[in-house]
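Translate structure to sequence.
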């Protein structure tokens, strides 16, 4: 049985502190969070920690990052009921749901993705490869999940997108326990490149078939 007792990362601790402030009304809906330098000074952490914390809050539905403008509070409540159920769920159940959602988001992304979204996917997949080749397991896991999140964002269905992001928070935790090196990610880089090419070509059939193969390798 997998050990589910997990040590919190510094980014998770920062995210939880910000989440507590949001839930207690310290930040109003649509209010902008402090800037990265301000948060770095407040929590005495580096930029990468703040960015990971904000990413966690965004995936949990508390904030939305607007490029060039900042990070804004969009809800004082997370999907707590769903999060609690996922947290207590078996690993196999979580992956079954994620796989079903992923197939649909890939299918729709191949039809609906924009050029700007495609560029983001390309950059993220390159980042995944960089971390895999350097043996940086934690950042590689995050880059892998972020790539699939970008695919979900481009599917054109906001509910599917949010469901995928909610699941992904928990998938990262499981991946961190499951993978102790980046060998699996190195081996699967090529098939991810082929998935990206199918999405770029708007080839729905190929994209879905490739996604099915990726899921089967997990």
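Result:
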């Amino acid at each position: 049985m997998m050990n589910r007792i997990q040590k919190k990362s510094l980014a998770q601790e920062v995210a939880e502190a910000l989440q507590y402030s949001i839930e207690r009304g310290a930040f109003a809906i649509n209010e902008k969070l402090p800037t990265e330098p301000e948060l770095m000074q407040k929590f005495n952490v580096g930029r990468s920690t703040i960015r990971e914390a904000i990413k966690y809050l965004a995936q949990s539905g508390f904030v939305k990052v607007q490029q060039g403008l900042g990070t804004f509070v969009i809800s004082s409540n997370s999907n707590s009921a769903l999060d609690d159920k996922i947290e207590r769920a078996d690993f196999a159940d979580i992956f079954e749901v994620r796989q079903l959602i992923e197939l649909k988001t890939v299918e729709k992304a191949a039809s609906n993705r924009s050029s700007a979204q495609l560029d983001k996917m390309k950059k993220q997949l390159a980042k995944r490869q960089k971390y895999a080749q350097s043996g940086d397991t934690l950042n590689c896991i995050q880059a892998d999940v972020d790539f699939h999140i970008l695919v979900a964002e481009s599917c054109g269905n906001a509910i599917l997108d949010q469901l995928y992001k909610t699941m992904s928070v928990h998938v990262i935790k499981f991946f961190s326990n499951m993978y102790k090196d980046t060998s699996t990610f190195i081996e699967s880089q090529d098939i991810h490149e082929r998935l990206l090419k199918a999405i770029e070509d708007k080839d729905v059939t190929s994209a879905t078939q490739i996604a099915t193969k990726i899921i089967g390798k997990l």
